[in-house]
Amino acid sequence: SSVGVLSSWGRLTGDHHLGTGRPRFVHVLKGVNMAFRVEALALPRTGLLRGKGAETHNEDLICAWALARGWRLVYDPAIRFLYHIRPTFGGLFRQYRNYGRARVQVVRKHADFLRPKHLAPALLVLAMVAAMVIAFIVPAFAWAGGLVIGGYLVAVFGAAFFLAARADFTRPDLVAIGLMCLHLGYGIGTWLGLAEALRERVR
User: Is the dihedral of CA 81, 67, 61, 107 positive or negative?
Assistant: First the structure.
């Protein structure tokens, strides 16, 4: 199965926990369970590693660093570990907010990792905020805000019903809330990451 592969247009094939077959070379490993040779992470200065033991939300950057210096990443499906999923929507939102912030860090170090789809959640958040502000200032254009937000909700619930039916899950409403946590969390996280980058430049 294809796991940990970054396509030419930016899609990362995940599902590391479902992989089968023999050990093989990949582009990205999961931060929850990865190990590197010390020489592979001979970073030029301190402060680049943000995790304590595990590079959570930051594995793209670490893997890209090692690959750029000629190292190879090996994925072995035989390795097993316990993973606790986020038990609440709030936890899921915070997780993807951290992913969005980390993506900015990755792109700052490796600009070639940026793909159009990485910007979609941030643009969604921007469109929603802009629509609400315009509707507040010029009530006559409130329909524009309704079109943006309503269109998004239709798309989310359509996807939720499809995913729930495919998995034989009877609560598409929960799937829809989860999808919104992913999209809005990642988008807000991206803007927070950009704000942090701007503050660092100003200093």
Answer: negative
What are the φ/ψ torsions at residue 6 (nearest 5 degrees)? Answer: -100, 115
Residue type, 44: P
Q: Are 188 and 93 in contact (CB under 8 A)?
A: no
- Which CA distances in Å does 146 have to 66, 71, 173, 177? 46, 50, 20, 19
Please count the other Cβ atoms lying within 10 Å of the Cβ belonging to residue 169.
Answer: 12
DSSP 8-class letter at 10: S
Mind listing the pLDDT tens digit of every residue in the chain (203 residues)? 678 777 766 667 777 777 788 888 988 887 666 778 877 876 666 556 655 544 555 677 778 778 888 899 998 888 877 767 778 999 999 989 988 988 888 788 777 767 788 899 999 999 999 988 988 898 888 888 889 899 999 999 999 999 999 989 999 999 999 999 999 999 999 999 999 888 888 87
Task: Give this prediction's pTM.
Answer: 0.70
Q: Which residues contact 40 (CB under 8 A, 6 or more apart)?
A: 66, 69, 71
